[in-house]
Amino acid sequence: MTREDLKALAEEYRDHYAAYPPSHAFNTLATEVLVLLDEGDALRKMADAAEMLWSVVANVSEGDWTKQSPEWQEAAAHWRNNYFAALDHYLRVTRQAQP
To answer: What is the pTM for the complete model shown?
Structure first.
């Protein structure tokens, strides 16, 4: 996962999730990702924070997203798709970098 991927995920959260509960937990994690972007060699920490944020999103309503509004479901699906695309990219890059 590149720095740009993580920044895009955190900014996407901010744009799509801030109005939905439990936004405090989301805000805390997204803020951590954005702060880590400014700390130089924190790529692994950023990936961990993005994974933690996905875990929170995935388990809202005990994983039953149908309990959330259609807008929330759409935003969550959008986050999921981008998260896994970034994760796939990160895994491909790190595998290529290994001897």
So the answer is: 0.56
